[in-house]
Amino acid sequence: MSDNKLPASIDETLALLADGNYVADRSLATVLFLALRMGRPLFLEGEAGVGKTEIAKVLAKRLGRKLIRLQCYEGLDVSSAVYEWNYAAQMIEIRLAEAEGVADRERLGDDVFSRRFLIKRPLLEALELDTAGPPVLLIDELDRTDEAFEAFLLEVLSDFQITIPEIGTVAAPQPPIVIITSNRTREIHDALKRRCLYHWVGYPDVARELAILKAKVPAAPEELSRALVHFIQRIRREDLFKAPGVAETLDWAAALSELDAVALDPAIATDTLGVILKYQDDIERFNASHIKALIDEVDAELRAAE
User: Fold this and answer.
1) What pLDDT, in 10s, does the model give residues 195-214?
2) In 3-state terms, what secondary structure has residue 179?
3) From the CA atom positions of the chain, what is the Rg in Å?
């Protein structure tokens, strides 16, 4: 499939993601294919570190489209997300006009509130048609914002347009490809979800997580990779404040490879727990004997599967 061309089937969507080293299941490929075909935003929800953001990155790269990322945070407002006026440049323009004796205030007002004084932020930038085609707009971690910002997004997601009081309505010639992610730290309003196709991105099973590890950290030894994935799958069943995501699996494999580990050793696993667990209370749940017992269970399971 050539750059810029959207996949024509679910299988082509799977292949597009695989070409970007993203190992997806068929359900994800199906909803992504439908979002692309229908021109609908795709809302991806799931725990942190399961690969939601990476989908937008791979999509932009494999389609040859510009990636525009809006990283959400508490207090995000229109001036940071959509546009703001270049007040310094406007003041200079006004001073120059006054020095030249321009008396037409209405004309001067129209001039300083023209597009050349507009600073475009991600949402407004995403409405512009790029030479490579409509960009991929990633609205990342929407759950970090407040409901007021969600309400503002409704116009953008419904009609792919933004109203700027001083200029008017700015509409996209072609809708961007929109990927929205949420770690579900709070519920997103139904009005926004209705404008999107939805998919829950969960933790992968053993086979898919191992395939992801092989694709992303190919230098990791086979025996280590298999043991590591089974170990991660087991500790996700524990009552943790934050279970390790796929991102932590990849980090741990890379870290153990840096230590020249060829198998999962209890001592090394204990010393490197901070790579996969980010809260002290979670780390304290796993003392050396607990880790050794889990590794022994993993080894027994792997031997039985041979």
Assistant:
1) 999 999 999 999 999 999 99
2) strand
3) 24
Token representation of residue 304: 């039985």
* Amino acid (1-letter code) at residue 104: D
Distance from C-alpha of 151 to C-alpha of 12, rounded to nearest angstrom:
35
Task: Spell out the residues 6+ positions from residue 71 whose beta carbon is closer than 8 angstroms to its own.
Answer: 140, 141
Q: Which of 179, 188, 115 is nearest to 150 (CA)?
A: 188
78 close to 152: Cβ distance less than 8 angstroms: yes
The secondary element (H helix, E strand) that includes residue 162 is strand 161-164
Q: Are 101 and 170 in contact (CB under 8 A)?
A: no
Nearest to 59, CA basis, from 114, 19, 119: 19
- Residue 245 has a CB neighbour count (10 Å cut-off) of 23
Q: What percent of the chain has pLDDT over 70?
A: 95
Average pLDDT value over all residues in the chain: 91
Cβ proximity of 79 and 121 under 8 Å: yes
What pLDDT, in 10s, does the model give residues 116-147?
889 999 999 999 888 888 999 999 999 999 98
Q: What is the pLDDT of residues 217-265, one digit of tens each?
A: 999 999 999 999 999 999 999 999 999 999 999 999 999 999 999 999 9
H helices then E strands: how many in the chain? 15, 9
Pairing of strands 161-164, 42-45: unpaired
Q: Contacts for 295-303 with beta carbons within 8 Å, 24 or more apart?
A: 295/227, 295/231, 295/264, 295/265, 295/266, 295/269, 297/234, 298/227, 298/230, 298/231, 298/234, 298/264, 299/227, 301/230, 302/226, 302/227, 302/230
Question: Mean per-residue pLDDT for 75-85?
Answer: 90
